[in-house]
Design goal:
heterodimer; A: 319 residues; MetI-like fold; 13 helices; 0% strand; B: 572 residues; alpha+beta; 21% strand; globular
Chain lengths: 319, 572
């Protein structure tokens, strides 16, 4: 097991390097000049000042040299200075990480808590109107763009009904540790972020449950006289959930990256919102750090998935 | 770029950015102004002001920051020596009083005797020197050249000198100092002395006279300033969400009545308007499109005033791809052929006025007796014919077989400008000019403009003007943008006569407002005749606040209307 993990981690290095090269090239080749943007509107700036800034940020060097410089820094844990904030890029992003993780975990919880019962119910009531409603919801939930449903919820829930706050993490004037207030803020963004996942899970679990309940051991359990509830939730669900682990793999990373849009709409001060703003102001160090952070998360979560998979399914062994 | 704190007269000359809350529009105030509050009311202390912003602050040290949101907040923490009159834009004494030598080169300053930092230390001449020095040695500041004309500054900046010879502190009175310039610079009052003094006892240690590499860039106090000279003190920065300031009880102008100022980040103008209605925000600049809904909300009060800025169509007069735009007659035809009043109605719901030259009417430098270019289709077509164009079978003008076709680009996401562009396409079609509309992201458009890219034939964009009317960076021929040299004169306008007038207004020798006004009026007259821009419209800014806030006295030279925030109070 240990060698397996080690080997997988080693494999991750060329993957991440590849990603870094691609993103590096794309960000530098896309139109826009960070120094011009950063100094835009400065009243008395001279061409010499602009050159000095380029030099300071190493932007006057050739592209390959810039990449080598960047890589050299990154190996030492330094992702460079943000042009916008004049602070090291990585700590700036990590500062935003808790907010994003809160949102991602809240969304994950909602996905499981709503998606699983929906899927099981649909399977057990196969063909009924309940099943149909859940299936239609599955398609819609998947198809609706998050920003749109987000805006709609803001208008309806926050402005018309005034039930929940629409922006940020905390009401102005509230204590940093006011959990109740924080919960009220997280409900809407977490739900919007979870929506596609809920739809996914319910569909997935419906199929799996249908598969499992036609198996012999389920019939045996029924024959033993066990209550229906206990057959479904104790015997069937457990096995139906195994393939779900596969879906869980990329989920965290998907949530973190999917949070970009949701964070934007709800002004949630997380990594996604921050990286988006950096992309708009061409703040290269922050963009690179953001992408590398998300990629690393993705790679790690896939590894985690494979390990967990081996743990829950005795038929699979990692070597 | 949104908005700056008005007390800092060093307002930026800025293209209004994509996320700009700006885009205001009307004339006089809407419902009664705060100043006219019931005389029965007694000001009370307490309460919190929650101001909406589309972006978070970036840096709280004004010596190294450039963005409007940071400036708005740091301007409440650090007071400047001078202030711009909120109504006229005239520069007036604030934290300091000055006299100027007869040759116009030396300014003698005295800082207000009772002015102290919030930690009790007096505000002294050394604090202004500290500001100049930290900016000289910073590697990241975009404002390094602000003090270039102060004697000895550049040598100090590069490390050739260990002191700035032009700034001399009175040995007898630490509140007195003189600043000597190498040449007459008329905008100095606003542009140089508008830079707030910074507490030397906090930041002084970071700049070392003998070490050119020691600088303030990484100082922890940059983003958590411990001492304030302005009405508010820094309290907390909840990154990406809110910035909280609390009242400075020892403010030299008298402690503010409002307990806390909070800058709250919101997604966009739609959300801002919604939050003003719910009371989650109590202060924010809003769009003309939101006025109808907000004016029906009982808890919201609206203030409107004409902005010191405008949105225009810039014609590239030096681009061979559209060589005909170099012809004054064609540009005049494009002025006559656009019904700006209709544009203002369609784009700004009537909240703006047509503009005919560079300075908006609110500025003292504005031109008089200008040609108003009243909408006249026939005149437009006549001018085009005089320019050698003839109408083809498809109704489009052409010359030498080439149609009169122009691509106009604007920045994507700015609804005001996108609508303006749509209307322009329709209207110009009626006079036989073919416009191809193009949208481009702000971040990729800006370098094309300031780099003189031949891709740009015409552009719709805006200027937010500074309190000092110096138009040097926008209209002087030395600022024509090209791939080799960036500049804000991105239409490529070059006119020796205009250059001379701009130089007169900038370098005197007579820097009196009267003399400068004369030069700028003449310049505006020429621009009005030459119309290198279709000058478009000056918008009104619209401020929405909680109806209980008293004491608001808005003016065109206070972009957020908060120049006197230390006197505001909230009715219980």
């Amino acid at each position: 097991m240990r060698t397996y993990i080690l080997r997988r981690l080693l494999y991750a290095i060329p993957t991440l390097l590849g990603i870094s090269v691609i993103v590096f090239v794309i960000t530098r080749l896309s139109p826009g000049d960070p120094v011009r943007l950063y100094t835009f509107g400065a009243l008395d700036i001279t061409e010499a000042d602009i050159e000095a800034l380029r030099e300071y940020y190493g932007l006057n060097k050739s592209l390959p040299l810039q990449y080598v410089d960047w890589l050299g820094q990154v190996v030492r844990g330094d992702f460079g200075m943000s042009l916008t904030y004049n602070r090291p890029a990585l700590p700036l992003l990590l500062e935003r990480m808790p907010a994003t993780l809160q949102l991602a975990f809240a969304a994950l919880l909602l996905q499981l808590a709503i998606g699983i019962p929906l899927g099981v119910t649909a399977a057990l009531r196969r063909g009924s109107w309940v099943d149909n409603v859940i299936r239609v919801f599955g398609v819609i939930g998947h198809a609706i763009p998050t920003f749109w449903i987000g805006l709609l919820m803001i208008i309806f829930v926050s402005v018309t009904l005034r039930l929940l706050p629409s922006q940020g993490v905390l009401t102005v004037g509230k204590d940093m540790w006011d959990i109740g207030d924080r919960l009220r803020h997280i409900i809407m963004p977490a739900f919007v972020l979870a929506l596609a996942g809920i739809a996914n899970y319910s569909r997935y679990l419906r199929t799996e449950t249908l598969d499992v309940i036609s198996q012999d051991y389920v019939r045996t359990a029924h024959a033993k006289g066990l209550k229906n509830r206990s057959v479904v939730y104790v015997h069937a669900l457990r096995n139906a959930l195994i393939p779900m682990v596969t879906a869980l793999g990329g989920l965290l990373a998907a949530l973190v990256s999917g949070a970009l849009v949701v964070e934007q709409v709800f002004t949630w001060p997380g990594v996604g919102q921050f990286t988006y703003a950096a992309a708009r102001s061409k703040d290269y160090p922050v963009i690179m750090a953001g992408v590398m952070l998300a990629s690393t998360l993705l790679v790690l979560s896939y590894l985690l998935r494979d390990i967990v998979y081996a743990m829950v399914d005795p038929r699979i062994k990692v070597r | 770029m949104a908005s700056q704190h008005s007390r800092t007269p060093r307002l930026l000359v800025a293209l209004l950015g994509t996320l700009s809350l700006v885009t205001a529009a009307c004339g006089p105030a809407g419902p009664a102004g705060g100043a006219a509050a019931d005389s029965q009311e007694q000001p009370v202390q307490g309460g919190r002001l929650i101001s909406g912003s589309f972006s978070d602050i970036q840096r709280l040290n004004p010596a190294t920051s450039n963005d409007a949101t940071s400036t708005q907040v740091s301007g409440k923490i650090y007071d400047s020596l001078v202030t711009a009159d909120h109504k006229t834009g005239e520069i007036k004494p604030w934290l300091g009083k000055w006299t100027v030598s007869s040759d116009g080169l030396t300014f003698s300053w005295t800082i207000e005797a009772k002015a102290n930092w919030s930690d009790g230390k007096p505000i002294i001449a050394q604090d202004f020197l500290a500001r100049v020095k930290m900016q000289a040695r910073s590697k990241v500041t975009p404002n390094k050249s602000t003090f270039n004309d102060i004697e000895g500054y550049q040598d100090y900046s590069t490390g050739k000198a260990t002191a700035i010879s032009g700034i001399v502190i009175d040995s007898a009175d630490p509140k007195k100092f003189t600043v000597k310039f190498t040449k007459v610079f008329c905008p100095a009052l606003a542009n140089v002395f508008g830079s707030a003094p910074m507490p030397d006892h906090v930041f002084g240690k970071y700049t070392v006279d003998a070490d050119v590499n020691a600088n303030v860039d990484q100082a922890a106090e940059n983003n958590a300033p411990p001492a304030a000279s302005g009405p508010f003190k820094f309290k907390e920065w909840r990154k990406g969400d809110q910035v909280i300031l609390s009242r400075n009880e020892t403010y030299w102008q008298g402690a503010p009545l409002i307990e806390e100022f909070v800058l709250k980040v919101v997604a966009d103008s739609t959300v801002a308007a919604a939050q003003l209605r719910t009371g989650e925000l109590t202060h924010g600049i809003v769009q003309p499109g939101d006025v109808a809904t907000l004016s029906t909300a009982e808890n919201v009060k609206l203030y409107k005033w004409p902005d010191n800025g405008y949105v225009y169509i810039g014609w590239r007069v030096n681009n061979p791809n559209v060589a005909f735009l170099g012809d004054k007659k064609v540009r005049q035809a494009l002025m006559y052929g656009l019904n700006t009043d209709e544009v203002v109605k369609a784009v700004l719901f009537g909240e703006g006025t047509k503009q005919f030259a560079h300075h908006p009417p609110v500025a003292w430098a504005a031109g008089t007796n200008l040609n108003q270019y009243a909408y006249d289709k026939t005149k437009a077509e006549t001018l085009l014919k005089e320019a050698g164009f003839a109408k083809g079978a498809d109704g489009t003008f052409a010359k030498d077989g080439k149609p009169l076709a122009i691509t106009i680009v604007t920045n994507q996401g700015n609804k005001t400008r996108e609508t303006f562009l749509q209307v322009a396409v329709e209207q110009y079609k009626q006079i036989g000019v073919k416009i191809t509309p193009k949208l481009e992201a702000f971040e990729s458009l800006v370098p094309k403009l300031t780099g003189g890219s031949p891709e740009v034939e015409a552009v719709i964009i805006g200027w937010q003007l500074a309190a000092d009317p110096d138009p040097f960076t926008i209209w002087h021929s030395s600022n024509v943008s090209s791939p080799a040299k960036a500049g804000n004169n991105f239409v490529g306008y070059s006119n020796p006569q205009v250059d001379k007038l701009i130089e007169q207004g900038r370098n005197g020798p007579d820097c009196s407002q009267g003399a400068r006004q004369k030069a700028y009026q003449e310049m505006n007259k020429i621009l009005n005749e030459d119309v290198p821009y279709n000058f478009g419209f000056a918008q009104n800014r619209i401020l929405a606040t909680d109806a209980r806030i008293r004491g608001i006295e808005p003016g065109s030279f206070s972009p957020n209307g908060d120049w006197n925030i230390h006197k505001w109070w909230i009715k219980k």
